[in-house]
Amino acid sequence: METTVRTTHHAEAAAAFLRDEENVDWHNETLWFVRSKRDKAATLLPEWEDLREQASRIKNHALSRLDDYLVELEKNAQQNGITVHWASDAEEHNRIVLDIMRQHNATQVVKSKSMLTEECHLNPYLIKHGIDVVDTDLGERIVQLRNEPPSHIVLPAIHLKKKHIGDLFHQHLGTDAGATDPQYLTEAARIHLRQKFLLADVAITGVNFAVAETGGFVVCTNEGNADLGAHLAKVHIASMGIEKVIPKGEHLGVFLRLLARSATGQTTTTYSSHFRRPAPGQTMHLILVDNGRTRQLASPDFRNSLKCIRCGACMNTCPVYRRSGGHSYHTAIAGPIGSILAPNIDMKQYADLPFASTLCGSCTNVCPVKIDIHQQLYKWRQVLGEAGAVEPAKKVGMTGMDVLFSRPSLYRFAGRAGRRLMKLFPSLANNGKLNPWAIHRDMPKPPAQSFRDWYAEQEKK
Amino acid sequence: MKVGLFIPCYIDQFYPQVGIATLRLLQRLNVDVTFPMEQTCCGQPMANSGFQKLAAGCDRNFIRNFADCDAVVGPSGSCVLHLKEHLHDEQHPTEAAHLRNNVYELCEFLTDVLKVEQLPPVRFPYRVGLHTSCHGQRGLGLSSASELMKPKFSKPEQLLNMVDGLELISLAHPDECCGFGGTFCVFEEALSAKMGKDRVADHLRHGAEVITGGDMSCLMQLEGTLRRQRSNVRVMHIAEILTADA
């Protein structure tokens, strides 16, 4: 069935989010605070811009020989005793996870943060198959209890206030009604999660960096929850997008310095855990997932987006994201980078996202691996326009504009007529129903003559 | 050097005084400037909406008007950036390339080409907030961006500092987007309006009497927001301040 072309989804969701202005201001300021922390952390490294350049080059290189590095990773991982799986899409990934669970008669999973599993919709899939899956990152657990997706890739529950958490925990974890003390609530979550860790048969983690040279991988968390899960459970499944591979261990120094500083302004994540081989008595699985990445890789315009290390800096700086919230992007990875990645997965469903930006370019400047984010958003708009994935009305409007602007006499006539009309019927121009600009802003006052008319008069004098 | 004055469509129609100030400023600096009468628009509205290819007629018209100029100068960073990055015509590739490489935003032209160190005397005794437009700042490199750990500079500030009596205020967010964003201001009306409101608030909080910048489209957004709030803070294009005779 043909999906209806609708490029207004983000705008509508943003408008709904904006109805509670106080909350929007709080959301905006909270994320700006994180961006400021990032600035301070970056300022302290005189080599910051060099680091970005190095990171960008390493990623460019890795992507240019992705096939070689993935095969090298697989070989070395296998030698270390890790079982390696390849998944071409989300469905295959989820099936592999379920198969592993069944092989071990497992029914309880603890999962640390992994945007890839969000992208694959793993949780609903496992639940459907009778598996109890618990997210162990505190923010992720909060949104899981609320039955909603994370709104930010690093700060999954950043859209919620202490009061929301208090009410939620009262309902699910039996904390005192009305409690908002972070220490008290965190302690309750900690006790609750400890029980889950102890019972789990399988631990699922994401992968921040996989090292081809060693066959190992690195998982970064601030709560140590990935480590608790992976060390307690008999089986550790790590899922990674194929773009996460880097050539050598020595490259980690560049990325680990950039990742936490860009994400939260920390010098490094609290736990950067290196997994190389299963502990005695345990099994370790590494799933390499494509899910559209090779398609992105094959596209010169969008390949660069695969350099992303998921730090979330582009979201924290984005003036649109800060005021519209992560859920307005209706995709696993919100914000500027998500708006490039999502249309690659489904062009029609996500046709609105490349337009949910003013192309201000701040995302491009904060990106630790130098992805030309705003340029790619612009390119996506062209691709969507040509593919007919933009509302027909918009196209008609834009064709009309070109007709107007390629005929100077018509342009002059229309300009004069328009200004006269605005003067005669100012209420028409300032009517929000006819002119969305005028809902919250005044139209400029039409001048008596255009610059062109003035100039022509001067010439005559 | 023959300089073509590019007055973008919306400035032509709504802000003729900005065109006049730009022309006067260039003339005062002894630039040989002409205004091709058949010019219209840079094509950005179409391109930003995903229809860059539909702007072919518009591009051709631009090239027809300015091909014989050594340089083109316009008082709008956003339009200039669009031309720099995307002006294109299959039938006239050489002319298009020439124009892409020789189109300048006004402040850029003054500081980098004319290397102005002193302006004909102007006095503007007001507290002024400078809105750095995203396309001017990050796109054209008119000033340093807060995200990059590089030396700080600002071409518009450099020029405003030449104005007698002018006091530049500092802002909490020196380079936050105003939310105009071309057709974004209509298609994402609620968000765009909120961004405008926040941008204006930063200037008001820091005591601006006048808000200025090099991009009239951003200024239109800020002006529309201020007027709706019945504020009497004025909005002026930088060309108007650089030619102000108080």
From TrEMBL, chain A:
One of the GO BP terms on file: lactate metabolic process
Record's keyword terms, sorted: 4Fe-4S, Electron transport, Iron, Iron-sulfur, Metal-binding, Repeat, Transport
UniProt key word 4Fe-4S: yes
GO molecular function: 4 iron, 4 sulfur cluster binding; metal ion binding
PROSITE patterns on file: 4FE4S_FER_1 (PS00198), 4FE4S_FER_2 (PS51379)
Superkingdom of the source species: Bacteria
Residue ranges of every copy of the 4Fe-4S ferredoxin-type domain listed in the record: 298-328
The protein's name: Lactate utilization protein
Natural source organism: Spirosoma rhododendri
Lineage of the organism: Bacteria, Pseudomonadati, Bacteroidota, Cytophagia, Cytophagales
UniProtKB/TrEMBL annotation, chain B:
Top-level division of the source organism's lineage: Bacteria
Cysteine-rich domain ranges (all copies): 3-84, 128-222
Cellular component GO terms held in the UniProt record: cytosol
Any one Gene Ontology molecular-function term assigned to this protein's record: oxidoreductase activity
Record's protein name: (Fe-S)-binding protein
Organism lineage: Bacteria, Pseudomonadati, Bacteroidota, Cytophagia, Cytophagales
